[in-house]
Amino acid sequence: MLYAILCYSDEVATRAKPKAQDDALLADLEPVQRQLCDEGKLGPHLRLMPTTAATTLRYGKETVVLDGPFAETKEQLLGFYVIECANFDEAIEVGQRLLGPRIAHGGAGALEIRPVAMSWTGGSLK
Amino acid sequence: MNDIGWIDAALTAARPQAVAALLRYFRDLDTAEEAFQEACLRALKHWPLNGPPRDPAAWLILVGRNVALDHVRRRSRQEALPPDDVISDLEDAEANVAERLDNAHYRDDVLRLLFICCHPELPATQQIALALRIVSGLYVKEIARAFLVSEAAMEQRITRAKRRVGAADVPFETPGAPERAQRLAAVAAMLYLLFNEGYSASGGDVHVRVPLCEEAIRLARLLLRLFPAEPEIMGLLALLLLQHARAPARLDSEGAIVLLDDQDRSLWDREMIDEGLALVEKALRHRRPGPYQIQAAIAAVHARAPRPEQTDWAEIDRQYAILETLQPSPVVTLNRAVAVSKVQGPVAALEMIEGLAQPLAGYFHFHGLKGALLMQLGRDAEARDAFNRAIALAHTPAEAAHIRLHLDRMQREGKPRSTKKASAHQRQG
Amino acid sequence: MYYAIFAYEPEPAVDALSKEQDAAMMAELAEVRRKLSAEGKLGPVARLMPTPAATTVRRATETVVLDGPFAETKEQLLGFYIVNCETLQDAIDAAQQLTAPRRAAGLPGALEIRPLAAYFPAGA
């Protein structure tokens, strides 16, 4: 089963941290991600730019293009992983492993684990 | 889709929440329904011009409330209605109402609305009809068609049910935890009834009435969204999804039932199965087993088997054993016997159902299974006897036709069929 | 530039679609995906399961596992696309194409376009 792990955190607080701290977080996440990859569990994953870089298309009667993210929330969607796990317990376990370095570096927030209903690989992006 | 199409979809989606909030406000089902109807009429007029509001439910609640209050005022003072364009100021007010609706009120509102429909004094068919009318907003004509009765008869049934619940006096205070749990259980049972009404028609010749099943799934989703940490509601939704996933394979081109073992599993709805499996796993993590979770877990075992012979019958036997202790009933034992016949053979299964002859004397599936087990053992005369009783008890032509197939087969082959497995006569079919 | 396009809808509106309406919308979306793919703009795409299937791992004083999605909002994140576009305008154009079938189905939601800071197609 494919799962998406959606990463939510307060982006203002996240970005207020010195770059060195973020680099340290990424350095600690790297072996976890590599390990997951070796286990054949990790698919595409990414980090999003801040919500200030977002544009939203609202449709209904007519489509309007708005600056900013879809929703103004206290915590924002900052990135996600697509993982492949045999079952839900395994997905939770992967979530816990990805949470580890975040906690170690004082991150607050949450990971949402949601099964993927359908997926398409699309073309290969360079 | 044209404008009216999207408005229709939006009104359907907003209905449970809006009617539920209006009911809390007016404390009267008819007034709440009328207010909602009025609000829908205004929506049909305003939304095509201004586009859909950000929060359709909040809009409908606010407009419905104002319109109903105006009616009251007008009746008492014969005063003119405010002009329609007062409503265009709604956009600001809407944000406020949305804020207020976000709190816990809303889930108790919807739960109360559903609970009112399943008042214990109402017979099951009235509960379902009332829920379809009030919560789902189906027209009486549509409900009558689904139940295969005349429109007038259904109209009367719903009116009678409304009168009963009107007198029942369900409290409007926010319920405490035990009361909430009780309401949830009653509503879950009603939704399962609704689903089953669609899944195995109790009469008539349409065996799978898809819209009822889909409506039950929609309402179960709504309920779980309101109570996301209730394992039994997860189990209920999972059970409905896993059973409904098989609908495309359950009937052949002639409308005859295709047994689980004989179904073309490539026709099963993969998307529904995946969602069902995900929910079962989530539910089981809570380690608070309940009947819906266990039945869903059993359905999950079937869903996971790519071919019938790969079914983990021992696991199904284990799950039914738990269900027997949790919710003992002759039907559960009967279903367990199917698993036992697969794991231990027909003799053990026959022994198991021996004691059920009395309580299940009038139950189609009992005689069907008994016949199949006897047939396996080559006891054709007794098998024929059991099959004939099953046919006499069949609810639909499809059920009867299926048993006749066994009889024909025995007739044709005229010898014991020791290799043929007992067919799943249980509801899992 | 890589962008993620997130699809948000009020779930009850999606639930209210009939199977036929959903199938028609998905067929039209498949057409749009094919076109974007042929233009070399489309990467992985996913439709997420409804939020009742979600679980959230959150850290307060200790890590807690909660049922349900991260946020209780009017509209829910229901899927995403990864696209590669020269400019934001290209991404908006791609998103416009993706809104059409949704609008046609009567859904009232939104697509959010957000540039990616880092992207790993698969593996680390």
Outline the structure in words.
The complex is a heterotrimer of chains A (126), B (429) and C (124). Chain A is built from three helices and six strands, in the order E-H-H-E-E-E-E-H-E. With 126 residues, chain A is of the alpha+beta class. Chain A has a single domain, classed as Dimeric alpha+beta barrel (Alpha-Beta Plaits, 2-Layer Sandwich). In chain A, helix 2 packs antiparallel against helix 3. The longest helix of chain A is centred in the first third of the chain and has 20 residues. The two termini of chain A are 26 Å apart. Chain B is mainly α and 429 residues long. Among the domains of chain B are: 101 residues, no CATH class; 118 residues, Serine Threonine Protein Phosphatase 5, Tetratricopeptide repeat (Alpha Horseshoe). In chain B, 69% of the residues lie in helices and 0% in strands. Chain C is of the alpha+beta class and 124 residues long. Chain C is built from three helices and six strands; from the N terminus they run E-H-H-E-E-E-E-H-E. In chain C, strand 3 and strand 4 form a beta hairpin. In chain C, helix 2 runs antiparallel to helix 3. At the A-C interface, strand 1, helix 2, strand 2, strand 3 and strand 5 of A face strand 1, helix 2, strand 2, strand 3 and strand 5 of C. Strand 6 of chain A pairs antiparallel with strand 2 of chain C, so a sheet runs across the interface.
Q: What strand order characterises the main sheet of chain A?
A: 2-5-1-6
Please identify which CATH superfamily of chain A we are dealing with: Dimeric alpha+beta barrel
Query: What characterizes the major β-sheet of chain B?
Result: none
Tally of individual domains of chain A: 1
Write the layout of secondary structure elements.
The complex is a heterotrimer of chains A (126), B (429) and C (124).
Chain A lengths: L1 E8 L1 H6 L2 H20 L3 E7 L6 E4 L5 E4 L8 E9 L3 H17 L5 E11 L6
Chain B lengths: L2 H24 L2 H22 L5 H22 L12 H12 L3 H13 L6 H11 L5 H8 L3 H18 L8 H23 L10 H17 L4 H14 L2 H4 L19 H15 L6 H14 L8 H14 L3 H14 L2 H9 L9 H13 L3 H14 L3 H17 L16
Chain C lengths: L1 E8 L1 H5 L3 H20 L3 E7 L6 E5 L3 E5 L8 E9 L3 H17 L5 E11 L4
